[in-house]
Recover the amino acids of this structure.
């Protein structure tokens, strides 16, 4: 690996070992910035909620397992809709199984929020779904810490 | 095994194009497409993104928000975990970010994303090694 030929800047290659007391000082210093970030994230989210809206004038019709659906149908009785686009087009081979992995929290761990519906939307033709053996998409999960570099 | 998700196809509609997550071959042939709110080169007909809509009591629908590229990173909880550990995301040596992603039962092979099933074109993967993250 090329990284070995140059001086590493990674902490794990040259860690600084200190006393618990010294660690605590450094940790608290970082926490001040973490808190700053949390407050900033809240402020950005508030600003996001204040964005103006654009009226949707087109009548989009989607293909779903239960037939044709309009954009209004996709809300499924809720007032807010979050659409994930997964780069899964007609000409893309096998992207769905890999990309869906990052949405595991969506698929398994979380329930629909009170007033928003979430779904995935891509250009891949639904009729071709089984042609690609995509039932496999139902068997995936993320494992952590697996970036293959020691 | 066996989790389910809600998925619909926008095939044959303008939807993905209107919200800048799909590009026609003609658009790509011009060299730059509108992605992440700027004109940029893009290696694929399909792009990652999130689109948010609101429906009022009269049934009017409004587009309220879109995010692309790293703007969708909050939904990738793996990165939130990796940001806690000393090695972090550790992706600098990879051909492209998230090339470590694979089927849950294929992590032990030690391989990166299957070269025959890339979610970026192979040439785009090489190209991305010299470019900053989008």
């Amino acid at each position: 690996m090329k990284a070995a030929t140059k001086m590493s800047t990674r902490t794990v290659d040259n860690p600084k070992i200190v006393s618990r007391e010294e660690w605590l000082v450094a940790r608290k210093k970082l926490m001040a910035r973490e808190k700053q970030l949390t407050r900033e994230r809240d402020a950005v989210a508030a600003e996001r909620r204040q964005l103006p809206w654009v009226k949707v004038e087109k009548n989009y019709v989607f293909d779903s397992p239960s037939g044709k659906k309009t954009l209004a149908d996709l809300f499924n009785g809720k007032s807010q809709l979050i659409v994930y686009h997964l780069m899964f087009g007609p000409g893309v081979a096998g992207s769905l199984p890999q990309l869906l992995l990052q949405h595991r929290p969506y698929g398994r761990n979380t329930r629909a929020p009170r007033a928003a519906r979430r779904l995935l939307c891509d250009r891949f033709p639904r009729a071709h779904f089984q042609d690609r053996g995509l039932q496999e998409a139902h068997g995936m999960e993320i494992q952590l810490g697996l970036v293959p570099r020691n | 095994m066996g989790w389910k998700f809600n998925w619909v196809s926008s095939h044959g509609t303008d939807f993905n194009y209107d919200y800048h997550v799909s590009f026609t071959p003609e658009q790509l042939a011009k060299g730059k497409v509108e992605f992440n709110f700027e004109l940029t080169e893009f290696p694929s007909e399909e792009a990652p993104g999130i689109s948010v809509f609101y429906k009022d009591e009269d049934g009017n629908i409004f587009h309220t928000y879109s995010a692309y590229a790293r703007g969708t990173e909050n939904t990738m909880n793996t990165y939130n975990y990796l940001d806690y550990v000393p090695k972090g995301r550790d992706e600098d040596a990879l051909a492209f970010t998230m090339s470590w992603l694979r089927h849950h039962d294929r992590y032990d092979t030690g391989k990166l994303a299957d070269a025959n099933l890339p979610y970026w074109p192979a040439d785009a993967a090489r190209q991305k090694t010299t470019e900053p993250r989008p």
Notes: Chain B touches chain A through 72 residues (CB under 8 Å). Strands of chain B lie at 7-9, 33-35, 38-40, 48-55, 61-68. The first helix of chain B runs from residue 15 to 18. The CA atoms of residues 59 and 101 of chain B lie 40 Å apart.
